[in-house]
Amino acid sequence: MTNTEIPTPAQDGLPTLDWRWKQDREKAHELHQLELPFVLQHVPDVEAGVERWKSNEYLVERMKHQKHSVTVAHSGRFMYFSEDKAKKSKSYHRPTEKLELTMEEFFELPVPDLAEDTHYYFLAGKADHNWIAEEMPTFQNLNEETKAALGWGRQPLPAFLAGSASAKSFRQVIRDETDSGRLGHGYLGTDANGIPLNAGLFLNSVNNSRATHDQTRFSAGDRYINMRIGQKGVIAEGHFDVSRNFIVMMRGARRYFLMHPCECLNAYIELADKEDPEYRHWKVRPDLPDFDIESAPLLQNVRALDVTVQAGDILYVPSYWIHYLVSLTDHNIQLNIRSGIAVEGFDHVQRASGSVGVQRRMQLERQYYQAKQRTVWEKAVLLFLCFSATVEIFKRKKHVLGMFLRPLKGEKGLL
């Protein structure tokens, strides 16, 4: 799990869709509505950004030399924890430390050679880089409020996006692209009013249409973009996020292990105590060299997707999907596009929560140990039966062999 070599194939059974093809864009919307993960490639805004973001100098300038949060771990393993909950606990030992550095200072930090060396993880929050949404209009939240703020249909296209098209309005550019058979700038297409249909994909403001009235309280949630930069070997321990998450890889590569919310019990996700600083994270460390699987036997039942996300790829991780990740390259950069909270998967979290979840996990572990004990006895019985059968066969063979050898013994005295 800690291997930093980029594996082949890059995706383990996960749908990989090409934004340039209409049927793939429609499939992305369908999977998004079903709250299932997928990988999206060849989004024009992202591909253009990948080229620009190869330059450290460009990023440093865009971030305006502001200081941002940098997490420090004296190994490659990063465990998120709630600082507020940690303050309330007298016994909790914080697994990481915090620094405030500019992006330029972060890029100058030493690159770790070994997994147990000190690693650094850069995080720019949602208020620190509005320029990202400006560069990538595909990710704009095009609800009525935003359209009004943009002066939709009157706002000229940013000059850096489209050469001679920069003097046209957003609506006219999209209409021209649609009429010519192309759908430029990453948009899915337009409705009757010329509004892009990607408005409900990346920055979705509501839950999908299958939510019931009683479930609408889970559809709220912030919609924003975070930037994260990791050094090679950085590990984010297994956890789930409540909000939907589009992971946009802008530089380098990361390896994700994705698990359905139904794996909360098998993956030992902490859901018993909401005041635990590491709530929503697993309470085991299967990536440690001395980890004993017998201490967490249900991990053997976990089913996971192994996905490598490289520069230009977009991975959709729905609400409550457990993920564990490894940074495969140095200074890899990803954007996290958070967008509301889904209903699907929450029922699995509920079943694994509180004292009921603890009892259920204990029951599953008892079943495992009982089955293992039965297996030991079954093996012992099988060995005994095999031994008895072998002895019986040997006796019969000896009797038959004696019948043939007796005449020889009597006639020639050979035996």
Give the SSE string: EHEHHEEHEHEHHHEEEEEEEEHH
Please mark out the parts with pLDDT under 50 across 5 or more consecutive residues, or reply none. 141-199, 205-221
- Percent range of helical residues: 25-40%
Secondary-structure class: alpha+beta
SS summary, helix count: 10
Strand element count: 14
Major β-sheet strand ordering = 1-2-12-9-14-7-6-3-5
Q: Roughly what is the average pLDDT, rounded to an integer?
A: 75
Shape: elongated
Percent of sequence in beta strands: 15-25%
Largest sheet: 9 strands, mixed
Distance between the termini: 65 Å
Describe the structure.
- With 415 residues, the protein is an alpha+beta fold.
- It is built from ten helices and 14 strands.
- The chain has helices at residues 22-34, 44-52, 56-62, 83-88, 103-107, 131-135, 144-150, 170-179, 346-351, 354-412, and strands spanning 16-18, 38-41, 67-73, 77-78, 97-102, 119-124, 223-230, 235-239, 243-251, 253-259, 305-310, 314-317, 322-327, 332-341.
- The chain has a nine-stranded mixed beta sheet. A five-stranded mixed beta sheet has the order 4-8-13-10-11, with no helix packed on it.
- The longest helix is centred in the C-terminal third of the chain and has 59 residues, at 354-412.
- It is elongated, with a radius of gyration of 29 Å.
